[in-house]
Amino acid sequence: MSDVATLESFRLADSFLPVGTYTVSYGLEQFIQDDRVEDATDLEGLLSTYLRRQIGPAELVALRAAHAAATDGDIEAICHADQRLSAVTLAAEFRESAQQSGDRLLSLQTELRDEALLNRYAERVDADDAPGNYAVVLGVATGLADVAVREACLLCCHGFVTGLLGAAQRLLSLGHTDAQRILNDLQPVMTAAVDDSADRGIDEMTPFAPLVDVLAAEHERAERRLFAS
């Protein structure tokens, strides 16, 4: 990649990016409340499941499709990938969180980049023709910035894991060293998820993590919540 594309990927991966992902735990809060995640070992196992069963088979597939469509200037393909991702995401909180962070990222990108395709996509989202999921917006943003698709997928995995590790530090007695150790240990799982997504088309989005979906549904009805999801 060019230096500009590399720097753009760094910006998109930075926790400083104001897209609100710090407000979500994607069900982790409920796992902790139910004593299913009590320490760093439990947390690493859950994050591995997320990567292998949800992020890889769904978000990364949508990201790849959006990245290719953005490169080709195909707004219809972007919207189709966006709609399909929402259709296979069972938990209402997950859909809402993905759309809220996606909306923030899309608004930010349209402010920073003079790209006709971004503006057309934003118009489709505003018209409710596309949900504006974060993974799809990220695919469009990285495609237009000439960030290679594999690096874009790795960026998505890294951002997801670091976001949940940040949530875990507020919910568990998880130190910075343990968080970095988990991030390091999950690198092979991230690359495996990226490899798996490369062989899937839009119609092959098959996230399957039933317990995650069940606890996400419980979290929607929890009386007290620190996180939006």
TrEMBL record:
It is an enzyme of class 3 (hydrolase). GO terms for molecular function: nickel cation binding; urease activity. HAMAP family: UreF. InterPro entries: UreF, UreF_sf. Its EC number is 3.5.1.5. This is Urease accessory protein F UreF. It comes from Haloarcula marismortui (strain ATCC 43049 / DSM 3752 / JCM 8966 / VKM B-1809) (Halobacterium marismortui). PANTHER family: UREASE ACCESSORY PROTEIN F (PTHR33620:SF1). Keywords: Chaperone, Hydrolase, Nickel insertion, Plasmid.
